[in-house]
C-alpha cells in the first residue's frame, strides 16, 4: 500500500486546472463526489433530474476517479480531458508538490472525528465477513493515529494550513456544514469550481435540483445503491454500495461510544488543533 502511495507522489501529473476533491475516509466522499459531479456536468443534461443522469444508474464513487488508492489508475488519469475532476484520500504530503506550485484547486471535506470514527467502525464491521471488530481496540488505534492515510489530525491540519495559505484555491469544508445548509454549500462549490449558477438557473431551481438529486434519501433509494456493489482485493471482498449510505446524520457517535471515549477524543482534538485556528 505504501509503495502505491509513493508512486502517486512520483508519477501523478497534476494539471493547473485540476479540481481535486480530498477527504479523510468516512467524511462523505460519496456525497461530495455526487455534488461536484452534478454541478460540473449540469449543462450536459437537459434537466438535471432527467432519467438518463449518470447519478441515477451509477454509484457516485465511480463517477469521479480516484488518485492513488482504491483502484486509482494513473495512466487512465492521463487520458482524461481537462479540466479534470479528481478525488483522493491522500494527505497533501503524499501528493506531488506541483499540486501546490501549479495552483490546483482543492476541495477538502472533513468530518467531526467521533462521527467519522463510528462510521468507519460500522463500515469495517460490514465488510469483515462475519468477524466482529472490537470497538475498544479500533478506538485505541484511532487515537494513536493508525490509519491507512495517517493520523486524521495531520490530514485535517495539512489541508487546513494549505487553505489558509491559498484561500482562493483551497476550499475547506465540514460535513456538518453540508448537512446544515446543503443549498449554500452547493452554490459555494459551483462558484469555487468556476461554474457559478446563473440567475436564470437559480430562478428555475437548478441548484435546488442538485441538492435533491444528491440527497441521502434520493441516492440511497436508487436500485444501484441498494443492490449494487464492487469487488475489492481481487474479488475477496465485496463492498455493497449500501454500506456507503448508513445514516447520513451528525452526532450518531453518542449511540455507540461511551462518554469517556468521547471525552478522550475531544481532548485529543483540542490538543492537536491548538493554535491552528481549526474548529470543527
Ligand atoms: P469512503 O470513506 O468509503 O469514501 P464516505 O462516502 O466518505 O466513504 O463516507 C460514508 C459516510 O457518508 C456515511 O456516514 P454514516 O456511516 O455516518 O452514515 C454515509 O451515510 C455518508 N453519506 C454518504 N452519502 C451521503 C449523502 N448523500 N448525504 C449525507 N451523508 C452521506
Automatic annotation (TrEMBL):
Residues 17-277 form the Sulfotransferase domain. Keywords: Transferase. Its EC number is 2.8.2.-. It comes from the Eukaryota. GO terms for molecular function: sulfotransferase activity. Belongs to the sulfotransferase 1 family. This is Sulfotransferase.
